[in-house]
Write a structure and sequence with these properties.
By secondary structure, the protein is an alpha/beta fold. The protein folds into two domains: about 160 residues, Medium-chain alcohol dehydrogenases, catalytic domain (Quinone Oxidoreductase, Chain A, domain 1); about 140 residues, 3-Layer(aba) Sandwich (Rossmann fold). It is built from ten helices and 16 strands. Helix 3 crosses helix 4. The longest helix is centred in the middle third of the chain and has 14 residues. The two termini are about 20 Å apart.
């Protein structure tokens, strides 16, 4: 297959205007790689960090995008067949090789999940990375169990909203935070048992709900709020550092004994496609189709609106997921 495709290229870090839509050659066939006709993709903070020059190991120019959904166009040397619906994510997409911000992308077969669904592409496109991060954080990161109480710091983010739904599905009591008092209703509608307005210090408010502290906590804001999240967690409880909505992810002069309350466990989750088993993604795709699980999509944009979408992500204007629909 020869020809050109439209793709979003970043030549070097910069503002949203640095994202350029260009005509590029359609990726060539490669044994063990899957060429996907991209139909939709979700936006992720990881891509914002790349655009801002905060991500390590990225080479430019680069087509961004750590996930996408679409159909198999070519898959030599794999079990996949042209026309199959698939999701792809992680594994260097949009960082060390060109990713999903394009009409076609080529991805190692190990990063591709075949899925059967009749969901609209934009709905399906909201799910893969969001579910992978939420599910991986709850299972691998926190080992969360039914009956436990979970604190989600950053509840109106797409990962926060997805984690609320997954955690309720797993039988947890959920406390979720938002900095905006007007968004507490959205958190409750997503399924949270308690909504807490985050003024930077919420440990006391959380302990009014869970006097001994929460069993497990998911930190999605970053290092500015991490000490307070640790303070809201009980002895032998676990905090998982997954998200960096604040764009701050390092602790200066880290002294563990002073930083981490005695007996509280701190872990992290970076995740990969292998942390979201195919049956789990299929289960939640089916649950969305049946109206049993919310996708919490904030806005759907066209490829031509990629700058607007990145602006909205950077300025935290969304409650839930931002999705790009590539082909109409």
């Amino acid at each position: 297959m020869t020809g050109t495709m439209r793709a979003v290229v970043l030549d070097a870090p910069g503002p949203p205007e640095a994202l350029q839509i260009r005509d590029l050659p359609i990726p060539e066939e490669r044994p063990g790689w899957v060429r996907i006709r991209v139909e939709a993709f979700g936006l992720n903070r990881s891509e914002l960090h790349t655009r801002l020059g905060l991500a390590e190991g990225v080479t430019f120019p680069r087509v961004l995008g750590i996930e996408c959904v679409g159909t198999v166009d070519s898959a030599p040397g794999t079990d996949l067949v042209p026309g199959q619906k698939v999701a792809a994510m992680m594994g260097g997409m949009g960082r060390t090789f060109d990713g999903g911000y394009a009409e076609y992308t080529s991805v190692p077969a190990a990063q591709v999940i075949p899925i059967e669904t009749d969901l609209p592409w934009e709905t399906f496109g909201a799910l893969p990375e969001m579910l992978q991060t939420a599910y991986g954080s709850l299972t691998k990161g926190l080992n969360a169990q039914a009956g436990e109480t979970l604190l989600i710091r950053g509840g109106t983010s797409s990962i926060g909203m997805a984690t609320i739904g997954l955690a309720k599905d797993m039988g947890l009591t959920v406390i979720a935070t938002t900095r905006n008092p007007k968004r507490t209703a959205a958190i409750r509608e997503a399924g949270a048992d308690h909504a807490v307005v985050d003024d930077g210090k919420i440990a006391d408010s959380v302990r009014q709900i869970a006097p001994d502290g929460v069993d497990v906590a998911l930190e999605l804001v970053g290092t500015p709020t991490l000490p307070d999240t640790l303070a809201a967690t009980k002895v032998h409880g676990t905090v998982c550092f997954t998200g960096i909505l604040s764009n701050e992810w390092t602790v200066k002069d880290f002294y563990p004994i002073a930083y981490i309350p005695s007996g509280v466990r701190l872990t992290g989750y970076g995740g990969d496609v292998t942390d979201l088993p195919t049956p789990i993604l299929q289960h939640y795709v089916n649950a969305v189709a049946a109206g049993e699980f919310r996708t919490n999509i904030h806005s759907v944009y066209s490829l031509d609106q990629i700058r607007e979408a990145h602006h909205d992500m950077e300025h935290n204007l969304a409650v839930g997921k931002l999705v790009i629909r590539v082909h109409h």
